[in-house]
Amino acid sequence: MAKTSSVEKNNRRRKLADQFAAKRKVLKAIIMDQSKPMEERFRAQLKLSALPRNSAKTRIRNRCEVTGRPRAYYRKLKVSRIALRDLGNNGQIPGLVKSSW
């Protein structure tokens, strides 16, 4: 199990990213638009840097939904390899069969 504080911190980052996503998208569009004057693009850059750091989508860490483990994460299932194995052995994931030879 991951520390509860780490999982909660990541959840706060997800909320902030969702909250500021539209604003960040507009500001980035202004910054990347070469036809706009340099002063306007610079003001947009300052506004973007004034937003909370944790509102950036790159700050979000993929974590297992079951255990909170940050590594060995399967995106499609949203679980770690260890949780996947446990759930598969218990028969809770349809179509997953433990192989043995």
Mean pLDDT: 93
CATH-defined fold name of the largest domain: Helix Hairpins
Assembly context of the chains: single chain
- Series of secondary-structure elements, N-terminal to C-terminal: HHEEH
CATH class of the largest domain: Mainly Alpha
Physical arrangement of strands within the biggest beta sheet = 1-2
Q: What is the strand content?
A: under 5%
Q: Main β-sheet, in a few words?
A: 2 strands, antiparallel
State the main characteristics.
Helix Hairpins, 2 domains, 101 residues, two-stranded antiparallel sheet, 30s Ribosomal Protein S14, Chain N, mainly alpha, 50% helix
Structure notes:
With 101 residues, the protein is mostly helical. It has two domains: 1-61, Orthogonal Bundle (Helix Hairpins), CATH 1.10.287.1480; 62-101, Irregular (30s Ribosomal Protein S14, Chain N), CATH 4.10.830. The protein has three helices and two strands, in the order ααββα. It has a two-stranded antiparallel sheet. It is elongated and about 65 Å long. The model has no long low-confidence stretch (mean pLDDT 93).
